[in-house]
Amino acid sequence: MTSFQTEFISGKKIAIFNQQYGNEEIARVIALGKMQKDDEDPFALVNLKLLIDRYNEWKREFPQIQPFYAVKCNDDNVLLKILADLGLGFDCASKAELDMVLKDQLVLPEKIIFAHT
């Protein structure tokens, strides 16, 4: 059986798996656990190591360019917190996205692009 740790980040329960397991196996374990609990809520599987590795690669290859994450791509507050902790800025396309980033004080206003069209 695949083992994992549980932590809470931004008020959400996060399962942290050992990296020796593949994404498919991890998704299967989560889905089976949810089925056993009759839990039909969706879940997301994110490889945070890959996310961090890609960010570090960006900073190494483009040290003079500050990346901004488009909040409309995925506005999950855990993901946004992790991205903010890495140092990314945010591209907000709506007042709701802007309010979300400001309300949670993820970054300073200087690290936000607001481009409402």
UniProtKB/TrEMBL annotation:
Which GO molecular function annotations are given, in alphabetical order? ornithine decarboxylase activity
Question: Which protein, by its recorded name, is this?
Answer: ornithine decarboxylase
Please verify whether the record's keywords include Transcription regulation.
no
Q: Does Lyase count among this protein's keywords?
A: yes
Documented EC number(s): 4.1.1.17
**Taxonomic classification:** Eukaryota, Metazoa, Ecdysozoa, Nematoda, Chromadorea
Q: Name one GO biological process term.
A: putrescine biosynthetic process from arginine, via ornithine
Q: Which domain of life is it from?
A: Eukaryota
